[in-house]
Write a structure and sequence with these properties.
- The protein has about 200 residues and is an alpha/beta fold.
- The protein is elongated.
- The longest helix is centred in the N-terminal third of the chain and has 17 residues.
- The chain has a five-stranded mixed beta sheet. A two-stranded antiparallel ribbon has the order 1-2.
- α1 crosses α2 and α5 packs across α8.
- It has two domains: about 50 residues, Helicase, Ruva Protein, domain 3 (Orthogonal Bundle), CATH 1.10.8.420; about 120 residues, Dna Topoisomerase Vi A Subunit, Chain: A, domain 2 (3-Layer(aba) Sandwich), CATH 3.40.1360.10.
- The protein is built from eight helices and seven strands.
């Protein structure tokens, strides 16, 4: 690592903001990027800028998309009576890769966390409840992670949704406790969805 290089320190810190990237990995990424031809760094920078400009939130499900509504919400082949609620976009992608789930999604973009001042108003809970008012959705599958915050979010949502007369189910715990939905393999997610239970 370069000593006394504020520019490299900023680059390392930028990489460290990515999930699962610790200091040593961030340093390796930074050093690899500096050792690569300038065109490689330019391609990376351009790809990030283009993705940031092209990708937005779907106005319906709040997932990330390049078109609005997203391809899932716009499809007439999806089961509109079932809605799967996830914490973040990678979880919806992981479930979709399993190839079994044919319903729609709703992405919260977080979980309830009073210690970090994250309540229902900071999440996409209002948008979720408004989607349920039309009566088209018969079942909501809560696919939040099995962390304390994920469980608290699922409990809060189950009470809100059940009061609206909509069936609520929770994915089975094939996903490891303390683990994230987005990190589970396809078979585990398939078993978790098929083994969901009412709340």
């Amino acid at each position: 690592m370069l000593i006394n290089s504020p520019a490299m320190d900023r680059l390392v810190e930028a990489f460290r903001r990515l999930p699962g990237v610790g200091r040593r990995t961030a340093e390796r990424y930074a050093m690899q990027l500096m050792a690569a031809p300038a065109a490689v760094a330019g391609e990376l920078s351009e790809a990030v800028a283009r993705a940031r400009a092209a990708v937005t939130e779907c106005s319906v499900c709040r997932n990330l998309t390049e078109q609005d509504p997203c391809v899932v919400c716009a499809s007439d082949r999806r089961d509109r009576s079932v809605l799967c609620v996830v914490e973040h976009p990678p979880a919806a992608l992981a479930i979709e890769k399993g190839g079994v789930y044919r319903g729609l999604y709703h992405v919260l973009h977080g979980v309830l966390n009073p210690l970090d001042n994250v309540g229902p108003d900071e999440l996409k809970v209002g948008a979720l409840l408004r989607r349920l008012e039309g009566g088209e959705v018969r079942e909501v599958i809560l696919a939040t992670n099995t962390t304390a915050e994920g469980e608290a979010t699922a409990l809060y949502l189950s009470r809100q949704i059940a009061a609206m007369g909509v069936q609520v189910s929770r994915i089975a715990h094939g996903v490891p406790v303390g683990g994230g939905v987005e990190y589970a393999d396809d078979a585990t997610l398939t078993r978790a969805l098929e083994g969901r239970r009412p709340v």
